[in-house]
Amino acid sequence: MKIRYQKVSGWLLTAFLSVLGFSSCEPWDMPVEYGTPNANYSVKGMVTDEANKPIPGIKVTIGKSGLPYNSYYDLKTLSTDANGQFVKSYIGESLRDITFSLTFEDVDGPLNGEFATKEQTVEIKMTELKNGSSSWYKGEATKEITVKLNSK
Description:
By secondary structure, the protein is an alpha+beta fold.
């Protein structure tokens, strides 16, 4: 008798929970999307000396503290090219205003002159995102800067 009661109550409970589960899926015409809201962020710039002459070979890094905790970012450092230019990008899954903490460091010695290390922050606001879709992709934003390094 006890086993039969457990089986019957198990079936009734399963049926009851099934009805509750199906009723929570309404409305039926609602589209199903899988993913995470994301956006592409970039900082593009040029590094110059006091005379506005481009400086090649400057090491550019972004500190971890400047990025949201759940973003994809590249920890490799990069160097300015022959024209003193650089681009640093990442995909952010946290849609909010963000701040990049950039460090510019002369690592080639006296080859292009000797320059003092400089830190700069760059803020990109959510309102600057462009070309997003109505889906999970919210767009892209690029901030362009010019950094002047002082001679040592």
